[in-house]
Amino acid sequence: MTAKTSFRGSFTALVTPFKNGSVDEKSFRGLVDWQIAEGTKGLVPVGTTGESPTLSHEEHRHVVEWCIEQARGRVPVVAGAGSNSTKEAIDLARHAEEAGADAVLVVTPYYNKPTQEGLYQHFKAINDAIGIPIIIYNIPPRSVIDMSVDTMKRLSELENIAGVKDATALGFMAHGGHGCISVTSNVAPRLCAEFQASCLKGDYASALEFHDKLMPLHTALFIETNPAPAKYALSLLGKCAETVRLPMVPVTDKTRAAVREAMVHAGLIN
């Protein structure tokens, strides 16, 4: 994140709860309220953690609208608007802007492996189509391609390109980061918010204590592919069902045990 926005602190990459094969609006809205009450500073619906690849366009748009409605301006909403089709990404970004999102999160186009120039043109086309900030999401393990620092630098000169999503937490903050878009904060929003607040104050002694509390959870939530472990953890907290959409499947018993143990370590359950 960067100075082009006032975004600071712990932002949650929200899961999308499901029930009986459909998106569970009630659980989703409840999750938004709980996140804000626990100190989360921003919400990121329908990113990777929100299982955007298996949502229909209609569902995607609904989730963005519900998030904005439920947040009621209390915290910023950064709507996922990525696609490997530039036209589709523009459509999602325009919808997010019209719905009242504060920014969009746009992943590098996956599967079709554009060149660096292709990446530049993709993000420039989205930049030119909307008037709200764009956060770039560069994630080679999922997208195959890796955006170069040079391409990021070129993009940063465009009006709406406002930052890069980073989730490495402590090291990133120590190097001058402004916040984190986190999976773990779905499950431990207060701890993640307090960790970020400590970093932003320069209180790294406290930050390290939070980091040590959270580290096993950071690890456990990625033993199997996100967001299946996070949804299991949320089911233990009574926040939503652990249902994921195929080709995602619920986590194994071994992962359940690891997630549960990490939650006990963080003081989230007994």
- What is the chain-wise order of helices and strands? EEEHEHEHEHEHHEHEHHHH
CATH architecture assignment: Alpha-Beta Barrel
Poorly predicted parts? none
Number of helices: 11
CATH class: Alpha Beta
Mean model confidence by pLDDT: 96
Structural classification: alpha/beta
Radius of gyration: 18 Å
Domains counted in the coordinates: how many?
A: 1
Major sheet, described briefly?
Answer: 4 strands, parallel
Q: TL;DR?
A:
Helices cover about 45% and strands about 10% of the residues.
In words, what does this structure look like?
The chain is an alpha/beta fold and 270 residues long. The chain has one domain: Alpha-Beta Barrel (TIM Barrel), CATH 3.20.20.70. The chain is 46% helix and 12% strand. The protein has a four-stranded parallel sheet, with helices on one face. The protein is globular and about 50 Å long. The mean pLDDT is 96.
Question: Features of this protein?
Answer:
four-stranded parallel β-sheet; 270 residues; 11 helices; 12% strand; alpha/beta; 46% helix; three-stranded parallel β-sheet; TIM Barrel
Helix and strand arrangement:
Elements: E1 9-13, E2 18-19, E3 22-23, H1 25-37, E4 42-44, H2 57-71, E5 78-80, H3 86-99, E6 103-107, H4 116-129, E7 134-137, H5 140-143, H6 149-156, E8 161-164, H7 170-174, E9 179-182, H8 189-201, H9 204-220, H10 228-236, H11 253-265
Parallel strand pairs: 1-4, 1-9, 5-6, 6-7, 7-8
Antiparallel strand pairs: 2-3
Helix pairs in contact: 1-2, 2-3, 3-4, 4-6, 8-9, 9-11, 10-11
